[in-house]
């Protein structure tokens, strides 16, 4: 861990301004990912801005019948919230499929969206990794890739995004609210929030330098059956090989998002439209252009089979 | 005490304390966080500094240059140790590669430097400021490739064990099997990392460490530092798991000692979790070819088992064929080990070395063979039971209750309800199957000594360098001393894990329980004699007629409090158990049977264990409670081996990639729903005066195959490459409807 300075911000806008003043600064909320990465010197912020005291830990109904979730609402509280369990069951189930009780107690909504990949080469500072050290290369390509991306990867990076919560947020069409260093706010559709790696895999979101997430807003409830199926080698406390989040309506229409397959939570609008035709049709559209490695090619049939099982369960 | 004839009736047979389910006497220390582990021994010596290890980032080659100036100038740094200033170092007898590398590099994450600083954080930060330039060399990292290219080595084949004419018998067999199985590299990943505090007083060195084998650690530390053995003291009273990963001197201990010498003050070093996989030892991967031939009657006529594994120069093969020499009958036999040179980190013992991976293969083969013969797998094993060493039929087993284990397990598990036709049982979205395997692990005899003291309050204190690696050694040793001296457990104090105490068997190879308690038995026999003599009870040979019970010594009408014998000065006795050729005369082994039910998700092919049963016959069970804990822990490890554990090798650069607990998955609570253990009544008078054997490894042996066989029964899919992960099943799974 490198030495760093630390401050507690007084307001979201002040936090953003402080970040702009201190190049290399990082916000810290739950710290469940950042602190580990700092110990390994994968992250080396010179300055930490603690946002825990900013009263961003509330949930409130929005005028149009949705739900506004403060950036600092802990994963445990979000998953247990009565409104979330009733109206956004997909979100609750995705959260509970992730991490452990202890981690969910600390981890925040915004932090969950921003967690870094679990690619083992990213974690070993002796290995080349374009995400950790731009331009150094990618050891994962041609290496141990069983857990890694099958679609949307590039010659620079085949890492996956590890979040379960973000998969649900994507299927639910959430919006990420932010404040920028100049105090201006904006709302970013979740579909535009995470990026594909391209040749800049170290840039993972559309946030600008210093920009701070203040809330994540869900539109009004969709109804339907909410299923989150996380497939993994052990029964708990493991990252997804693939995860399928689906909201299925009684008429067979609905939405599907995937975890564990790409650099970001994965959803394709045209694939949603295929839902009434079944898992194969949806998967064909969802994973069109997939480029798996020999080690992770199993994820393609696994997605189709898992989705098939989810749709069968939705039908009841 | 020399033990070379079967044990007669002795005070242990009273079973007033021994054999009773007894909670661990160290339990309160563990549950209150007051058991002192190596890294937390802040009290033992003042002014401790922190060391942080710098590990090689190449697998093979040499250090061209190593720049330490920036690290030395970093805040709080007291010293930096590299091969350049460590002085001349030897190599421990039990280390394949030097624990401090340089200039030659033998494997990834081999230690190349230690940074010592005032705080842990300063040491860790400065460790990143050590700049090493390497000259990379080509290395061999791929076992499958090495196996293809090594060909037949006549020198290695010379060591093959053969009986009869395997080739001819196999040729002639009407039913046969010839299959190849693989097991991956595995990491011990015990909870407590390797950790040591080292302090010098002049030319004497004391280390507080976490080590299973005190005497080995002391000897190899002295040898590596080229100093007299008697000037090294090793202290390791509590160990947070070892599984064989702490059998040997490792880098934490050596570097703490070197760091302390360089810094001129005590230094503590723990290996960070990400170094555990590549810096320490691991269970080596195997490729195993098994051939079995049998008659239509189901009797094996020919059996061959060959195993390929790799290791560094001076490393040994994984002995995955050992159980096949002894487990089943068959007139024509061949077993052999093939060792390839690999430049991966050192392969060495992990819980049930040899048998664990060996049975993972053999017991699938037996399941396959039973199917080809259309014989029930349990009956097939019973049919091929042997009561004598198949390589030497004059030599019986001292005890062999394999058949009883199989029959008891089949009955208790409901084996008769199994549908022998695979992929026929469904429970909602789960395909359900059950499988079984035999368990086998040898019982090893090794000398072990102890000292016992009696004080004038009647308290018996036992001292031996035996270790408790979470197994219950403290408790069974206390039970032994209590039984022998006729006192309650509240009158026994046990002190372990200190090289200042008499040398014990140590903890490994499931030999600890029987040998270490036998050593305590021997010392107690001597103490009883001293007591009797002091009290004038020494008339009859072997103290016949003298009873030690309820804190009293009795003979005829006379009864004297035990404490009285001690007097003010106390009484002390030291002895050990040593074995003659008794293990040569009869084969000593432990046996068991594992039964497992699994569910396989019909869509995703995720495998989840639903219930497990182990039936064990392993001599006298000294403490059924701690023995059960040993076995269920081992069964859990077997689930990991069967379903998830694999060190992924990057064969381009030669290292284990998934080197932390996020990447190297071991079972969590949700993976272990229901486990049951049954111990058959058994005493083995050939094993020691305790008539006990070990269970800690038996519980792991066969579990993996039982699970793989259950997966086959559930799905009809035979996976011969561990771990049995869903990607190996998906292709054959039924369509999702």
From TrEMBL, chain A:
GO molecular function, one term: xanthine dehydrogenase activity
E.C. designation(s): 1.17.1.4
Pfam families in the cross-refs: FAD_binding_5
Enzyme class per UniProt: oxidoreductase
Keywords tagged on the record: FAD, Flavoprotein, Oxidoreductase
InterPro entries: CO_DH_flav_C, CO_DH_flav_C_dom_sf, Diverse_Substr_Oxidored, FAD-bd_PCMH, FAD-bd_PCMH-like_sf, FAD-bd_PCMH_sub1, FAD-bd_PCMH_sub2, Mopterin_DH_FAD-bd
Domain of life: Bacteria
Domain FAD-binding PCMH-type: residue ranges: 1-223
Protein's name in the database: Xanthine dehydrogenase YagS FAD-binding subunit
UniProtKB/TrEMBL annotation, chain B:
SUPFAM superfamilies xref list: CO dehydrogenase molybdoprotein N-domain-like (SSF54665), Molybdenum cofactor-binding domain (SSF56003)
Keywords: Oxidoreductase
Domain of life: Bacteria
Record-linked Pfam families: Ald_Xan_dh_C (PF01315), MoCoBD_1 (PF02738), MoCoBD_2 (PF20256)
Keyword Oxidoreductase: yes
InterPro entries linked: Ald_Oxase/Xan_DH_a/b, Ald_Oxase/Xan_DH_a/b_sf, Ald_Oxase/xanthine_DH-like, AldOxase/xan_DH_MoCoBD1, AldOxase/xan_DH_MoCoBD2, AldOxase/xan_DH_Mopterin-bd_sf, PaoC-like
Enzyme class: oxidoreductase
MF terms (GO), sorted A to Z: xanthine dehydrogenase activity
Stretches that traverse the bilayer: none
EC id: 1.17.1.4
Stretches assigned to the Aldehyde oxidase/xanthine dehydrogenase a/b hammerhead domain: 32-138
Protein name, per record: Xanthine dehydrogenase YagR molybdenum-binding subunit
Organism for this UniProt entry: Azospirillum picis
Source taxonomy: Bacteria, Pseudomonadati, Pseudomonadota, Alphaproteobacteria, Rhodospirillales
């Amino acid at each position: 861990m490198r030495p760093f300075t630390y401050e507690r911000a007084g307001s979201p806008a002040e936090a953003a301004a402080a970040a702009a003043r201190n190049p290399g600064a990082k916000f810290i909320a739950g710290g469940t990912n950042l602190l580990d990465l700092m110990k390994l010197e994968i992250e080396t912020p010179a300055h930490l801005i603690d946002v825990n005291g900013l009263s961003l830990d509330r949930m409130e109904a929005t005028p149009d019948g949705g739900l506004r979730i403060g950036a600092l609402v802990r994963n445990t509280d979000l998953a247990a919230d009565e409104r979330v369990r009733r109206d956004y069951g997909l979100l609750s189930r995705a959260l509970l499929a992730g991490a452990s009780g202890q981690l969910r107690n600390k981890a925040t909504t915004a932090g969950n969206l921003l967690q870094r990949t679990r690619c083992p080469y990213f974690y070993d500072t002796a290995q080349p990794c374009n995400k950790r050290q731009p331009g150094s290369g990618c050891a994962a390509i041609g290496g141990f890739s069983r857990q890694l991306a099958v679609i949307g990867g590039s010659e620079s990076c085949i890492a996956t995004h590890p979040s379960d919560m973000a998969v649900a947020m994507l299927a639910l069409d959430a919006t990420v609210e932010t404040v920028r260093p100049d105090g201006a706010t904006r709302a970013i559709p979740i579909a535009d929030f995470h990026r594909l790696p391209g040749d800049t895999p170290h840039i993972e979101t559309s946030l600008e330098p210093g920009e701070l997430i203040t809330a994540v807003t869900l539109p009004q409830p969709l109804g339907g059956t909410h299923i989150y199926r996380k497939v993994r080698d052990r029964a708990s406390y493991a990252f997804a090989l693939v995860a399928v989040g689906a909201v299925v309506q009684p008429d067979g229409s609905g939405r599907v998002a995937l975890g564990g397959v790409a650099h970001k939570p994965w959803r394709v609008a045209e694939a949603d439209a295929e839902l009434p035709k079944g898992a194969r049709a949806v998967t064909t559209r969802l994973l069109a252009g997939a480029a798996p490695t020999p080690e992770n090619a199993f994820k393609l049939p696994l997605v189709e089979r898992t989705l098939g099982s989810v749709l069968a369960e939705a039908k009841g | 005490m020399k033990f070379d004839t079967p044990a007669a009736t002795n005070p242990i047979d009273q079973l007033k304390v021994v054999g009773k389910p007894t909670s661990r006497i160290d339990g309160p220390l563990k549950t209150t966080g007051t058991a002192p582990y190596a890294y937390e021994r802040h009290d033992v010596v003042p002014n401790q500094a922190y060391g942080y290890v710098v590990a090689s980032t190449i697998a093979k080659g040499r250090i061209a240059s190593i720049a330490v100036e920036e690290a030395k100038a970093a805040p709080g740094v007291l010293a930096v140790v590299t091969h350049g200033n460590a002085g001349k170092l030897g190599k421990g007898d039990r280390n394949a590669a030097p624990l401090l590398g340089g200039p030659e590099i033998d494997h990834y994450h081999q230690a190349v430097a230690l940074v010592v600083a005032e705080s842990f954080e300063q040491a860790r930060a400065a460790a990143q400021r050590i700049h090493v330039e390497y000259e990379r060399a080509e290395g061999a990292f791929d076992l499958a490739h090495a196996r293809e290219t090594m060909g037949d080595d006549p020198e290695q084949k010379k060591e093959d064990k053969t009986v009869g004419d395997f080739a001819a018998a196999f040729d002639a067999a009407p039913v046969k099997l010839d299959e190849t199985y693989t097991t991956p590299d595995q990491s011990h990943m015990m909870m407590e990392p390797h950790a040591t505090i080292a302090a010098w007083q002049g030319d004497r060195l004391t280390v507080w460490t976490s080590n299973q084998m005190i005497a080995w650690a002391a000897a190899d530390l002295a040898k590596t530092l080229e100093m007299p053995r008697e000037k090294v003291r090793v202290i390791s009273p509590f160990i947070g798991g070892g599984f064989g990963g702490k059998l040997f001197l490792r880098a934490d201990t050596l570097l703490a000692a070197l760091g302390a010498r360089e810094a001129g003050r005590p230094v503590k070093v723990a290996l960070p979790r990400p170094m555990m996989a590549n810096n320490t030892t691991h269970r080596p991967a195997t490729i195993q070819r098994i051939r079995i031939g049998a008659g239509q009657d189901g009797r094996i006529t020919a059996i061959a088992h060959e195993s390929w594994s790799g290791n560094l120069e001076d490393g040994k093969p994984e002995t995955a064929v050992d159980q096949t020499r002894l487990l089943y009958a068959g007139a024509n036999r061949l077993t052999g080990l093939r060792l390839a040179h690999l430049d991966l980190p050192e392969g060495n013992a992990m819980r049930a070395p040899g048998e664990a991976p060996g049975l993972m293969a053999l017991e699938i083969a037996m399941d396959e063979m039973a199917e080809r013969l259309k014989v029930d797998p349990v009956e097939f094993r019973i049919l091929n039971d042997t009561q004598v060493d198949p390589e030497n039929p004059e030599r019986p087993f001292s005890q062999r209750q394999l058949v009883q284990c199989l029959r008891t397990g089949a009955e208790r598990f409901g084996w008769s309800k199994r549908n022998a036709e695979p992929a026929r049982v469904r429970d909602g979205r789960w395909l359900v199957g059950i499988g079984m395997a035999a368990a086998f692990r040898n019982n090893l005899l090794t000398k072990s000594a102890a000292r016992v003291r009696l004080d004038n309050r009647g308290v018996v204190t036992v001292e031996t360098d035996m270790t408790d690696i979470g197994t219950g050694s403290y408790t069974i040793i206390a039970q032994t001393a209590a039984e022998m001296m006729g006192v309650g457990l509240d009158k026994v104090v046990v002190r372990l894990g200190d090289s200042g105490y008499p040398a014990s068997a140590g903890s490994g190879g499931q030999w600890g329980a029987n040998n270490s308690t036998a050593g305590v038995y021997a010392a107690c026999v001597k103490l009883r004699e001293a007591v009797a003599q002091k009290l004038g009870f020494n008339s009859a040979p072997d103290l016949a007629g003298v009873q030690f019970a309820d804190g009293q010594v009795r003979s005829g009408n006379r009864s004297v409090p035990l404490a009285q014998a001690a007097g003010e000065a106390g009484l002390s006795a030291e002895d050990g158990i040593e074995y003659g050729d008794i293990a040569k005369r009869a084969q000593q082994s432990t046996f068991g049977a594992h039964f497992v039910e699994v569910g396989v998700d019909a869509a995703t092919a995720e495998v989840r264990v639903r219930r497990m049963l182990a039936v064990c016959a392993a001599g006298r069970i000294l403490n059924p409670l701690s023995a059960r804990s040993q076995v269920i822990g081992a069964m859990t490890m077997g689930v990991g081996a069967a379903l998830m554990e694999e060190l992924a090798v990057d064969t381009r650069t030669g290292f284990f990639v998934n080197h932390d607990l996020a990447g190297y998955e071991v079972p969590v609570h949700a993976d272990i729903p229901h486990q049951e253990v049954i111990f058959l009544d058994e005493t083995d008078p050939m094993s020691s005066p305790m008539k006990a054997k070990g269970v800690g490894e038996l519980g792991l042996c066969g579990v993996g195959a039982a699970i793989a066989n259950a997966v086959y029964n559930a799905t009809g899919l035979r996976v011969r490459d561990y771990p049995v992960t869903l990607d190996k099943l998906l292709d054959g799974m039924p369509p999702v409807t």
